[in-house]
Amino acid sequence: MKYTEIYHFHHPHHKLRFENSEIPFKCDGCKEVGIGSCYKCCSICDYDLHMQCALPSPTLFHPFYRKCNFQFMSQPPGDTPRYCNACEKDVNGFVYHCRSCGYDLHPCCAKLPMVLDDGEVKLYLYRKVRSSWCHHCGRKGGSWSYRSKCKSYNLHVACVREMLMENWHHIYAGGGRDVVVPGLKNSMQSAHNNRKGKKVKKRCCEIAAMALQIVISALLGDPTPLIATTVASLMSN
């Protein structure tokens, strides 16, 4: 459910207003990059929250961890550095934590869809894919992955987040216009080289572009024109 204005415990002095940001922001809740739908301070504060951080669930169940009961926390527990079990990146703010198992999930990672379906191609979220190489890093296993139904394309959630962080300064410099995600073009080209036929290569590219677009959208908190522009520019090269 989306509200126009809300009060949030983490920023109690001012209301937060729902906006659609076309430039990247750092979420003041989970401390991760965001873009698109967010809640922004109605006053002069430079305060932003992902939708998932602004309207969290007190508890969360995830099918990958059926015995876990995740609790929303405003900061990671204890003094030991913690990492997200989905993307394998550090947890520095808001988190879903299971006290009994010790697992942690960034709010945006916790809400990643299990199935991505554009009507033609389906991508499934796996906890680990041991039989296929990631088309970005070339490794098996590792963090959560999206895999195509035909099993010809696999992309680590961690790799997508890594590409975003590598390109963070380019997104700011480009003002949300001509952004190139590093490594993706080579990743898709590598996948193409393993297949014969122009139609098959084109289809593989479409799968890769759609996978990247939706995974980035989910990690950042919402689909945005920036993401669509990024993917379109990659496919045209």
Mean pLDDT: 77
- Described by the principal axes of the CA atoms, the overall outline is globular
Would you list the SSEs in sequence order as H and E?
A: EEEEHEEEEEEHEEEEHHHHH
Structural class: alpha+beta
Radius of gyration: 18 Å
Q: What fraction of residues sit in β-strands?
A: 25-35%
How many runs of DSSP E, i.e. beta strands?
14
Q: Biggest sheet: strands side by side, in what order? A: 1-2-3-4
Question: What distance lies between the first and last C-alpha atoms, to the nearest angstrom?
Answer: 38 Å
Percent range for helical residues?
25-40%
| Tally of helical runs | 7
Q: What about the largest sheet?
A: 4 strands, antiparallel
Pick out the low-confidence regions. 174-192, 223-237
Pfam family, one: C1_2
Domain DC1: 9-54, 71-110
Protein name: DC1 domain-containing protein
Keywords: Repeat
How would the blueprint of this fold be written?
Layout: E1 5-8, E2 11-26, E3 33-41, E4 48-50, H1 51-54, E5 59-62, E6 65-73, E7 82-83, E8 90-91, E9 95-98, E10 104-105, H2 107-110, E11 115-117, E12 122-126, E13 145-148, E14 154-156, H3 157-166, H4 168-174, H5 184-193, H6 198-220, H7 225-236
Antiparallel strand pairs: 1-2, 2-3, 3-4, 5-6, 6-9, 7-8, 9-10, 11-12, 12-13, 13-14
Helix pairs in contact: 3-6, 5-6, 6-7
Protein name: DC1 domain-containing protein
Organism: Stylosanthes scabra
Domain DC1: 9-54, 71-110
